Amino acid sequence: MDPKRWILFILSTAALQFLIDVYVIRAWQSFVKSHGWSAWLYRPLWAICIALLVLSPYISYQRSNHARLEEWMFILFIVATLWYLPKLPIATVLLVRDITRGCVWLWNKIIPQRKQMDVQHETVAMPSRRAALQASAWGMAAIPFIIVGKGIANADNITVHEHDIELPKLSSAFDGIRIAQISDIHAGSWRDAKPFGEARRIIEQLKPDLLLITGDFVNFQADELKIIRTELERLKAPMGVWASLGNHDHYSRNQDHTLLKSVIKNTGIRLLVNENHSFDVNGEKLQLIGTDNTGLGQTFADLPAALVGVDVNYPTILMAHDPTFWDKEVREKTMIDLMLSGHTHGGQVGMTFMGTEYSVAQLVYKQWAGLYNDGGQFLYVNRGLGTVGPPIRIGIPPEVTLLTLRKQKPLLG
Question: At residue 185, does pLDDT exceed 90?
Answer without folding.
Answer: yes
